[in-house]
Amino acid sequence: MHPLSIYALFVHNLAEPLLPFTANTAGPALLAEPCAPCSTAAPSVTVRRAQLVDVLQLCALVNSYAAEKLLLPRSTEHIALALDNYTVTVDAGGRVLACAALTEYSPSIAEISSVAVLRELQGRGYGAQVVLAAEQVARQRGFTHVFAMSLAEQFFLSLDYRPTPLHEYPEKVARYSDLEASGIEILPKSCFRKALA
Is residue 83 part of a domain? Predict the structure, then answer.
């Protein structure tokens, strides 16, 4: 790992306290209240902000979907430098079961991105946990709404996201254009928006 990445990880892990919580508890948590999708998850899992120890697992999880063009690829350096933006669900042994990231484009625009769940664990509420946790990070940072790009339409609709035209987010359109110009294939996806109370 690049020395700058190691430095960034060290700084990120000290700069902002982690707010861990276990499934089905509200407590001092990233989620303000328990949610129905979370209740299906095993009680031994924890949803928390990503840590240094998670970087390689995060990279492997996200890139397993990027290989199918379902997510954008991420390097370990990219994840390390953006570690404060990732939320994860981990089991008691520290295995990353799911992840989501908050990608900030401007002081008013943020995207829920890199949503991934281990394939063998899909349908257990882990994806909802990390998305709701990422939304809470967005609230803490002052965002009034978030958007997401996904082929998993029913998943985002079940979390109160509503379809919206992509052109409402010119920053995302410009990013897609830059990525396509660099040779990265972008699959057409639906755009969803959610107001954060």
Answer: yes
Query: How many domains is the chain partitioned into structurally?
Result: 1
Positions of E strands within 16-155? 21-22, 46-49, 86-90, 96-106, 109-117, 145-150
- Ordered per-residue pLDDT tens for the chain, 197 residues: 444 444 343 334 433 333 433 333 332 233 323 333 343 445 699 999 999 999 999 999 999 999 999 999 999 999 999 999 999 999 999 999 999 999 999 888 999 999 999 999 999 999 999 999 999 999 999 999 999 999 999 999 999 999 999 999 999 999 999 999 999 888 899 999 999 97
The residue range of the domain holding 12 is 3-143
Is residue 177 in a domain? no
Q: Which residues pair with 112 in a beta bridge?
A: 102, 148
DSSP state of 39: G
Q: Does an H or E element contain 174, and which?
A: helix 170-181
Strands (E), 26-176: 46-49, 86-90, 96-106, 109-117, 145-150, 162-163
| 150 bridge partner residues | 190
C-beta separation of 23 from 43 below 8 A: yes
In a domain? residue 122: yes
How far apart are alpha carbons 39 and 132 in whole angstroms? 13
CATH of the domain at 32: 3.40.630.30
**Whole-prediction pTM:** 0.78
